[in-house]
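Look at a sample.

——
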Amino acid sequence: MAEVFAARRDRLRERYAENGGAVLISRPANVRYLAGTAPPGAVLLIGPAAGDGDTLCCPATPLSGATVTSRPDDGLRPALLPEDGPDPVIAAAGLAHRAKAGELAVEEHHLTVARYRAIGSELPRLRLADVGLAVERQRIVKDEEEIACLRIAAEITDQALGELLESILVGRTERHLALELERRLVDHGADGPAFPTSVATGPNSGRRGHRPTDRRVEEGDFLTVCVGADYRGYRCEIGRTFVIGTTPADWQIELYDLVFAAQRAARESLRPGMAYRDVDLAARRILDGAGHGAGLAPLTGHGVGLEIDEDPQLTPAAMGKLDACVPVTVEPGVHLPGRGGVRIDDTLVVRQEADGGPELLTITTKELLAL
């Protein structure tokens, strides 16, 4: 993997090589992507030339906060700062200045105003530039090692959800079920949940991002679950809706079939060259045509990886087109105030038609189960 991290840094370095510029990365997910790990507070300095060595500036040891499966690239030079030492950002900028870097490109979208001003105050002769979202854009297309981590995260999530569905649910609270799901994720090998687990019952079901409450599961409820595992830093997402009881009501079957049709249409549109907004439109057109357009979420899906909500964003106004090897969620839903609703959410990887089309990572059944 050391060669992979070095190649990622070299791609970024090439942008600033002409001016002898260095690059300072401070956003934790970007540090991890380029360095192999991101200890709390660490920043990464990428020097003007690969031979000069890149530096991981840490307020503690390089392995602080890192797991055994998440080690820094051996090609990095560690700069260990004492607990009462300088801000790692200022320390890294100082290293760039002493190395006579022509300019220093920083992540303006991540640095606070105070930190940005501190660099200018401490090193007034160091010319600053903005690296923009260059690393985030580089992260969109995943290599097969990254996709393998996402695949394992999805397997863990499917296992945890499948076990929960075999237990008694009636009478248990949303909060209790969410905590049990997160425990099961860890039991099966996850580093933790990819995001706060959402369990929604009855009138809460179908709400995107619902935070679990003390409401108890009742017969006849819709039960919506959205959960994901974090495995070696890579995060997946799955969402399913079930009915509690023996027979779903007619309105529940009708609503479920509608959301399922919208989700299938969006999944089937995932191919290289498809516009982001057209994936969103594939699902939105079906739900809007059934009269639910006004209450729909602002997006149909989003990218996943080292963060659970990455680019691309599958929204009506999104610009850009899908590439192969881009993992995304497809998660349409409808919520009827006072009654509940349906969400169906999968993580998939965009693949060429010759490779079988979109690869479904989350495989828990999408049949409307009565639990």
